[in-house]
Amino acid sequence: PMNQERILESTMEALEKYRGHWPEIAQRSKLSYSWIIKLMNGGTKNPRIKEVQRLVTTLNRIKKGKIQLNS
Question: How many CA atoms lie within 13 A of 70 on its CB side?
């Protein structure tokens, strides 16, 4: 099983691919845009699992084509 650090790292790598869509991803994940910015800038050293899980779920749905991002 992946450890929490690896899950966070892979989530941030996936999120980086969608730079420019972060406001929409935040909205769909029920997170604030500022939370995503802090996460990606290293301002959130130990994010709560619940928040990361919401982000992972949204990113997985985008990857599977279940969510279409606005252009």
Answer: 8
Q: What is the pTM of this model?
A: 0.89
* First-to-last C-alpha distance (Å) of the chain: 35
Q: Going residue by residue through the chain (71 aa), what tens digit of pLDDT does each one get?
A: 568 888 899 999 999 999 999 999 999 999 999 999 999 999 988 899 899 999 999 999 999 999 999 87
Residues in the chain: 71
Beta carbons of 11 and 51 less than 8 angstroms apart: no
Under 8 Å between Cβ of 10 and 2: yes
Q: What's the gap between Cα 34 and its chain centre?
A: 12
- Specify the DSSP class assigned to residue 2: -
**How far is it, in rounded angstroms, from Cα 49 to Cα 67?**
22
Q: What letter represents residue 31's amino acid?
A: L
